[in-house]
Every structure is written in C-alpha cells, then in structure tokens.
Write a structure and sequence with these properties.
This protein is α+β, with helices and mostly antiparallel strands and 225 residues long. It has one domain. The protein is built from 5 helices and 12 strands. Strands 1, 2, 3, 4, 5, 6, 7, 8, 9, 10, 11 and 12 form a 12-stranded antiparallel β-sheet that branches. Strand 4 and strand 5 form a beta hairpin.
Length: 225
C-alpha cells in the first residue's frame, strides 16, 4: 500500500487507510493465525517429528469452512503430537487450533496430499488428522504416527520411528485394514467380484502401500451404484 502523501503527489488511486480491504485482511489473518506459538519439544532426538520433511511445505487450509490457499502458505504436520503448524507472514511458527481446522493439503515432491480432521463420536473413538486416499461411498484414510525409540546403548541416540495405519470408512464406522484378506472380509457382500477384480487387474493389496486399496474400493462402490 502506498502512503497518503505519495498518493497525493502521484494522483494514484490507493485504498484508504482503514479501508474495507484492510479490515478484511486483518479479519482473515485472525482466522488463519488462530493458534499458539509452537516450541520444539524434541531438540535432542535424532531425526524429526514431521511428515514427509522437516522443511515447511506449500499447501492450503480450510478453517471453520473458510479456505486459505495463497501460494505463500507453508505448513508442517507434526505426527508425534498430531498438530498442524503454519509459518506466518512474520516468520513465526504457530500450532493451529485443531478445533478450527477442517481440511488441509500439503504439496510434497509434486504430489498433493489431502488431509481431513476427524473428531471422535459414539461410533469412532479415533480423532485427528487423516490422509484421504479415496473418498466415495466408502472412504480410505491413512493415519501417520511417529514415536520415540529410546536408545539401547550409550553410543546411540533416541530416534523417531514412523508408522501408519490404514482405515476404511464404511457405514459411518472406521475399520482397520492391513492386507487383502482384511479388505475382502470387510467388503464381503461382493467378495467374489472383488477377488476376480484383484486377480484380473493383478493388484497387489498391501498395508505398506495404502494407495493399493483405492482401485478395489472404487470398484466396490461401483457395484453398489
């Protein structure tokens, strides 16, 4: 924004001080930067507590139904504490208020990952941020986690160990799946069709590769439509 004096001198058209644009920008920042200052609780642990990278990643976030997708936004997902961090325009690191976050995305190695916050209810006690792999009549989610493995000897350091679990939402309930057998068992109402589909398409369903469940689920949903 140019100053009042420079506007007068150049006859430029500038937004007035305290304009609706200024107030709108302030309001958006109040919504976006809703959280508390983040502190690193694990400076002595080997590795880092973040998903994908210790660096901030481009992305977007939807908070209370409002989406922020500026190209300047940068995030990290702390999967030890299941918290989303944002780098503000003043280079402060905030831990966003989880109760306000609906969805967010992270761009890593040219692939866009979409996350959804889920809260516990009477059917599902799981909560937090889940990577959405497939979203249809049934849905496929991955929950990432890092835990600290304590050193076994004086020459070692405590380290972070990453793991994940695969979940399928069916009938409003989250179910854990980890291989082809557990998938077929969960979707047993079309068991034979699914077996034929997996075999004919040479799909190797594995919990180590959560994306491998997606084509099977898409086929399953097509059978119910």
């Amino acid at each position: 924004m140019c100053s009042v004096l420079s506007c007068i001198q150049s006859s430029a058209i500038c937004p007035a001080i305290g304009s609706d644009t200024d107030r709108q920008d302030t309001l958006e920042k109040q919504i976006l930067y809703n959280g508390r200052v983040w502190r690193n609780l694990y400076p002595q642990i080997e590795g880092n507590q973040f998903l994908f990278s210790r660096e901030f990643l481009p992305g977007s976030v939807t908070m209370n139904g409002r989406t922020f997708d500026s190209s300047n936004l940068k995030f990290k997902l702390d999967i030890v504490n299941d918290e989303l961090l944002i780098l503000t325009d003043r280079n402060a690191i905030l831990q966003l208020n989880k109760e306000m976050v609906d969805l967010f995305t992270l761009l890593y190695e040219n692939e866009l990952y979409r996350f959804k916050r889920m809260g516990p209810d009477s059917l599902n006690m799981l909560s937090g941020y889940f990577n959405v792999i497939y979203d249809g009549e049934t849905s496929l989610y991955v929950k990432y986690k890092k835990e600290i493995r304590l050193r076994n000897s004086a020459g070692e350091k405590d380290t972070f160990i990453q793991s994940h679990r695969v979940y399928i939402m069916k009938g409003g309930i989250l179910h854990t799946v980890n291989n082809k057998s557990s998938l077929i068992k969960l979707l047993s109402d079309h068991k034979e069709q699914l077996k034929d589909f997996i075999r004919s398409n040479k799909i190797r369903v594995s919990g180590k590769n959560p994306e491998s469940f997606a084509p099977v689920m898409a086929f399953y949903d097509s059978l119910n439509n």
